[in-house]
Amino acid sequence: MKTMSKLMTATAVVAMTAAGAASAKELKYAHFQAADLSSPKHAAALAFEACVEGKTSGSIDVQIFPASQLGGGSEIMEGLQLGTVQMAAIHDGPISAVYKPFSVLAMPYLFDDQAMAWSVMDGEFGDALAEDMLAQTGIRNFGVADNGVRNFTNNVKPVAEPADMEGLKMRVMTAPVWVTLVESLGASATPVPWPELPGALQQGVVDGQENGVTNIVNASLYQHQKYVSLDGHVFSWHAYLMSDAFFQSLNDDEKSAVEQCVEISKTIHRGMTAAQDANATAILSEKGMEVVPVSPEQKAMFRAAAQPAVREYIVGEIGADWPDRLDAAVEAYKAQ
Q1: Which residues constitute the signal peptide according to the record (predicted)?
Q2: Among 139, 150, 69, residue whose Cα is nearest residue 102
Q3: Number of domains in the chain
């Protein structure tokens, strides 16, 4: 009888576990970096999965889809709006194509360092941008982590000042503001979706591109690029986005778990990416690239050429309100 009782108990536990798994809320989490712990987005995603499933006792089943498995940026943004993708860590370009005010963050040569950039994005400015995005798109932005300080690379010649950009064919993200940035410096710009970038470089469709150290290494772009110029033109972002319809379907404890675990993931993501940016010269030299330093005087030349043109474009697209708010946030940080 005791044996039978134990068997019945074990069967009941298995049945309850199976029932719990069947009723768990599925959270499809998309990102585009490789499924490798050296990839900041994937390391952060795995931390989020463990954190959420632990805090909710498995009532949320996090399923991670790395390396653009669910599609490119446009497809993921559409999926978030339709609810076919519940969550994503996605970069600036595709976000700006759906929610235009996000393009204000493409303003070049604006932030001095990560401390300034994080403070602005974690403060009133970042909160206001997220609230407006939710209202306009139905996509909830929990916050941002680093997509890396963007630098120019190419396979033709060293670039140390704007005049060196003349004649280069540069890949940019699929949002018009990036075309304006590159063309203001004298190069021609070709929008190419992220999954297609390595092939475009290998085949010579474009001469170069602009990205942070993490993405250059993660996608092995260094295999097709000889020169990298450390101009640091834009602090690029990955936003932690969720379908608001999915978020509202969660109970209060599950919502709290998601919010807490995003904060943990964001911190991991920022730290890994910022460390790679800080060691850009060593990392990229080791990969065989020729690192071209850009002096403060040369960076000022880039700023003078690019910032007015990009600002004019952004104001033409979204008005002056968001650019003015961003300028004010930067000035408030400097005044501390």
Answers
A1: 1-24
A2: 139
A3: 1
Residues shown for the chain: 336
Q: Secondary structure of 128-151 in the HEC alphabet?
A: HHHHHHHHHHCEEEEEEEEEEEEE
CATH of the domain at 249: 3.40.190.170
DSSP string of 237-277, one letter each residue: EEEEEEEHHHHHTS-HHHHHHHHHHHHHHHHHHHHHHHHHH
The string over 107-130, giving b where at least 16 C-beta atoms fall within 10 Å of a residue's C-beta and e elsewhere, is bbbbbeebebbbbbbeeebbeebb
Q: Which residues contact 297 (CB under 8 A, 6 or more apart)?
A: none
pLDDT, tens only, 2-45:
444 444 444 444 444 444 455 899 999 999 999 999 999 999 99
Q: Which residues pair with 89 in a beta bridge?
A: 240
- On whether residue 282 sits in a domain, the answer given is yes
C-beta neighbour count of 255 within 10 angstroms: 13
Pairing of strands 87-91, 25-30: parallel
- pTM to 2 decimal places: 0.86
The boundaries of the domain holding residue 183 are 24-334
Number of other CB atoms surrounding residue 248 within 10 Å: 9
Structure tokens at 299: 């960076």
